[in-house]
Amino acid sequence: MLKGYLCIVLHGHLPFVRHPEHEDFLEEQWLYEAITETYIPLLHVFEKLLEDKVDFRITMGLSPPLISMLQDPLLQNRYVRHLEKLIELASREVERTRWQPEFNRLALMYLSKFNFARYFFVEKHKRNIVQAFKNIQDTSKLEIITCGATHGFFPLMDVCRDSVRAQVRVATDQYRKVFGRHPKGIWLPECAYNPGDDEILRENGLRFFFTDTHGILHGTPRPKYGVFAPVYCKSGVACFGRDLESSKQVWSANQGYPGDHDYREFYRDIGFELEFEYIKPYIHSDGIRINTGIKYHRITGDTDYKLPYNPQAAMEKAAAHAGNFMFNREKQAEYIHGIIKKRPIIVSPYDAELFGHWWYEGPDWLNFLIRKIAYDQKNIKLITPSEYLEKYPRNQVITPSFSSWGWKGYSEHWLDGSNDWIYRHLHKASQRMTELARAHSQAEGLMLRALNQALRELLLAQSSDWAFIMKTATHVAYAVNRTKEHLLNFTKLYHQIKHNRIDAGWLSGCESKNNIFPDIDYRFHG
After folding, report:
1. Domains plus CATH for the chain?
2. Which residues lie below 8 Å from residue 97, measured CB to CB, with a gap of 6+?
3. Mean pLDDT for all residues in the chain
4. Tens digit of each residue's pLDDT (9 = 90 or more) over 359-388
5. Is the CB of residue 469 less than 8 Å from the CB of residue 14?
6. Kind of pairing, strands 58-62 and 380-382?
7. Which of 1, 58, 162, 377 has its CA 20 to 30 A from that of 194?
8. pLDDT for 390-449, tens place per residue?
9. What secondary structure letter does DSSP report for 494?
């Protein structure tokens, strides 16, 4: 008998990194790794499920910067070049490890994987995997939700709410053009909710969003069903809360599945381990060692001595973990159903890159889980938020509390001594953008281009990724430079627009480099 529903949410996002002025740019590697290790494997799982006529439901966010990069011809071409280098490296590895059977089998595995990625990306989907996601959404098995235009941290943009509106308007506008429909839901950047932002979501036709657990549990009045049923804000927009138990089983560094000793070790990569002269053609052109994706060891345990990776043992463990996760959700749904006397929804959100990139076996675990839920039990069903709201349209009205899924649950990760300097500049730029938009309501020609580029630069400066990177102390110089670059570009445009002295040549350079949202409308800000 059906006792409840499981809603798996994968949040796909990367900051907009595109540098046509450099032939080989280190941070572009983030996108290439994500395509190979996360997005192609997930798409392959979804397509095989459809081919095998397995009934499933997955909710997935594709952020506007991620969509923009996946659709960009320059980055598509560079990704193919990146794949071809990996295929060459894997071929050399097959030869180098020929007297090491345990590693040679893995080298052959990686060679096959990279060749498949090239076939999947170039031949099967003509370099357009966003269209592949759209095709799956059109079968109603996948619900794609949007995000903030550049993943700006909404609670810290409250000084100028026009910027929050612009983040939502630009995102929903892009979504309609890419997917041919209006988005029903949104993943608030960093899962950060600020009371009142739901009114902006309602203005833009969005029906639901997500918060972390305490966003609902600390709401007013107290939620009758906890996080096991959505609530409505006073605006009529629904809010779904994250389930802690299912999240912990996957996320926890100590108790989560990805830390199992049979799984592949992320931090042992031949890009850092092999002789420099051998690996040099396959790392960054400046000689900076980087991950290649070829990793020969398993986690093994808390030791520097790592055993060779065994794919068969890892797949068996992934299947076992999928069965364990399903069993726990069955018992959880059964227990909650007995208390609240209605079918609960268990919301399990994760960063998409956990699956494949950080947790190599993650896509296989998801594949096993979906198939087991479809065939091995009858207590729970997979569902999307939209489907749940259609089945259960009557829900409690509360005001969720300010919250995020970051460190300690609020804004600390994006506002501390390492990054607090950026906000006075972002707030001033936001106010100036509103000033420009209201002063030039019918701009044309060069003025129109300048105003549109001003909004692009502001949105790019607002990305929460830069503050996050400053806090975590990784790639700090790049995050600082990106923040300053976009703010300086915006300020220069502001003064040129104010005095009607627009430098057309310099503007063209900005448009060429920072070309996100080609159809942007500066009037979205204001």
Report:
1. 7-71+128-258+342-408 (3.20.110.10), 415-524 (1.20.1430.10)
2. 103, 104, 106, 107
3. 97
4. 999 999 999 999 999 999 999 999 999 999
5. no
6. unpaired
7. 58
8. 999 999 999 999 999 999 999 999 999 999 999 999 999 999 999 999 999 999 999 999
9. H
Q: Which helix or strand (DSSP H or E) is residue 59 part of? A: strand 58-62
Assess contact for 243 and 345: CB atoms under 8 A. Answer: no
- pLDDT for the residue numbered 526: 77
Instruction: Tell me how crowded residue 240 is: count the other CB atoms within 10 A of its CB.
Output: 25
| Rounded-to-integer distance, Cα 317 and Cα 392, Å | 36
Strand order in the sheet with 208-211: 208-211, 238-241, 231-232
Cα dihedral sign, 207-209-214-219: negative
**What number of residues does the chain have?**
526
* Residue-level pLDDT at 248: 87
Say if residues 454 and 486 touch (Cβ distance below 8 Å). Answer: no
Between CA 455 and CA 493 the distance in angstroms is: 10
Q: What are the start-end ranges of the E strands in 352-459?
A: 380-382
Q: Among 52, 100, 135, which Cα is nearest to 375's?
A: 52
Q: How far is CA 154 from the centre of its chain?
A: 16
Q: How far is CA 61 from the centre of its chain?
A: 6
pLDDT at 253: 65
At residue 211, the 3 state secondary structure works out as strand
What HEC string does 258-296 produce? HHCCCCECCCCCHHHHCCHHHHHHHCCCCCCCCCCCCCC
Output the pLDDT for position 109: 98
Among 168, 66, 68, which residue's Cα sits nearest to residue 515? 68
Pinpoint the alpha helices (H) of 119-160.
Answer: 129-137
Contacts of 192 (CB under 8 A, 6+ apart): 153, 154, 155, 403, 404, 405, 406, 411
- 461 Cβ neighbours under 8 A, 6+ residues apart: 422, 425, 426, 429, 482, 483, 486, 487, 490
Residue 447: C-alpha distances to residues 134, 439, 451, 516 (Å): 35, 12, 6, 18
Q: Which helix (H) or strand (E) holds 419?
A: none
Q: State the pairing for strand pair 186-187/208-211.
A: unpaired
Residues of the chain with pLDDT under 50: none
Find how far residue 142's CA is from the centre of its chain. 15
Name the region of 478 (left: φ>0; alpha: ψ -120 to 50; beta: rest): alpha
Q: Can you read off the two tokens belonging to residue 343? A: 């079918």
* Residues 333 and 379: beta-carbon distance below 8 Å: yes
Greatest alpha-carbon span in the chain: 72
- Distance separating alpha carbons of residues 153 and 146, to the nearest angstrom: 15
Contact of 153 with 187, CB cutoff 8 Å: no
Q: Are 34 and 353 in contact (CB under 8 A)?
A: yes
Closest by Cα among 24, 88, 15, 126 to 353: 15
Closest CA to 170 of 502, 484, 437: 437
Can you give the pLDDT at residue 252?
76
Question: What pLDDT does 171 receive?
Answer: 98
